[in-house]
Input
Amino acid sequence: MCCEGKKTNTIKIKKKNPPSISKELAAEKKEPNFLLSDKNVMEFFLDYDKKHKENTVRITTDFGTIDIKLFEQTKFHRSNFIYLTKKQYFNNTQFYRVVKNFVIQGGNSDDRETSIKRRNIGKYLLPNDYDKGFKHHRGMVSMPSKNIENPYKKASPFEFFIVQQQGGAHHLDGDYTIFGNVIRGMEVVDKIAAVPTDAADWPLQNVYIKKVEILK
Output
């Protein structure tokens, strides 16, 4: 059958511009499918930094609590840590690499739940921000580089380490972003650093990060 000659009413659909990152930021709590990526992470955290100024967190471990102040100068890393804390990412992860008289490194786990949490947050890297004048003194909180070919030394956003070494670990200066320091609980860091480990520096008995919470 032919429909020629008949008038039809057409509806014009107005094209919408794609949402900006700031709109994504405003809606991300309502949109569980929102994922961070290398394409949106810098603009996202620049906007996040303007709205979320918290800078002090508490890490509760099997050995006690560690309070950390995050530096305003390293805005991407401060915002990232606050964001992940609010997402409860760090809860039930572990200090999975412990090297006595050097560092304790946390934010990972051999639990499948951690991989699921990462996948639900997104796959992205942070720009290295190591030129703010901070040094790897004892008690500094820093972020390791990704275990891939990484000429620009971009950092893994889900992991962090605390310098436990007396006198600091200054051979790391210029390679990793220092984004905070321990203001209370270095005795807890020392206890964790003293636990027995295997040949890969993984504690023989898992050292859990029970939770990370924002103090102010």
User: Anything to note?
Assistant: Residues 75-86 form the longest helix (12 residues).
